[in-house]
Amino acid sequence: MANAVSEDAEKPVTVVDSAETSIGILSWMACSIGMLLCNKNAIHAFPVPCTLVGIQFLFTALVMVVVAGKSIHVGSRKDVLRWCRVIPFFSGMILSSILALKDAPMTLVITMRALSPITSLPIEMCFPNPIKLSGPMILSLVASLVGMGIYISTMDFNAGNLGGIGWTLANNLFAVVDRLLQRLMLANDQDPVDMSKTGVTLLNNILGVIPLVLAGLFAGEFSAVPEAVGNLDSVKLFWVISSCFVGAGISYTGVWVASLISATSFLVLINANKFFIIFLEVFVMKSKELSTMQIIGATISILAGIAYGKARDAVQAAEKEEVTDDTETGSGDTANTGESVPLKDDR
């Protein structure tokens, strides 16, 4: 077993591996930005959140079957049952994101998400192949929390903002559990299931409809669907359809990137991706005015997320070098490489 670990650690990162990681991350970033913008407009155009997310899920499942049917692989019933643990948190993550965008500005939502890596890191350290901490990692996470505090402290609180904060906190909770479970069951260095990326995406979107139906029944939402459909015009319909297409893209690219980087790294990537969102909302869409302190707080939070990613890379590089040195000296040590993988979809 020790030899197997050492041999895996010694495998060099090829040009193809680097290209796949770069293309996967860029694809996910494009879909993530598009999904946030489309969902922000779609939930106001079609204000029945469980139904809207359910339509997105079913559309994504259809796309997976039509476009990537041959690549769908599900190993066994046991793998499906194991994966079912992810489904409630995946559905909750997407639904709470929609509700947060309905009640709060995008800038608040993305700044609050700085909490995600702080929450996920202690749990990920308990995994079979845990993450190791360093001083710069801890400092960057503290800075991220400080930046978020500065942003919130200068807000004008009202019922809408408080509702948005509540849904954003719920979204963070669902996202952390979703990503940690996916990391555990997708990463080659953890306890992976025998399923392809398209198989995982299909299960997430088909089985994810079940919690949405239960939530819609509990909230009494379905009685309002006919009226919401009747109020759709061409512009509103455009946003609903666009959210379905971008949702299909982010569902696959999320799992793709999940198989390439760690859960905490993906959560940090989500935060770093939000600079462009802030720019769009404040300077292009002009739907939100930020004070100087809010801009400073958001900037600190996002830059701290980027710094965390750099610090994490440094720890991984040091662990690789340690494993290589142990192998060369014949110690046969099973040192942790720190090279994690998985995560998922951020809408």
From TrEMBL:
Annotated keywords: Membrane, Transmembrane, Transmembrane helix
Highest taxon, organism lineage: Eukaryota
Q: Does the keyword Transmembrane apply?
A: yes
Q: Where is the composition biased (Polar residues)?
A: 329-339
Region (Disordered) residue ranges read 319-347
Membrane-related topology note: Multi-pass membrane protein
- Annotated compartments: Membrane
Segments traversing the membrane: 50-69, 89-112, 133-152, 202-225, 237-259, 266-285, 291-309
Indicate yes or no for the key word Chaperone: no
- PANTHER family from the UniProt entry: SOLUTE CARRIER FAMILY 35
Write the protein's name. Answer: Sugar phosphate transporter domain-containing protein
Species for this entry: Prorocentrum cordatum
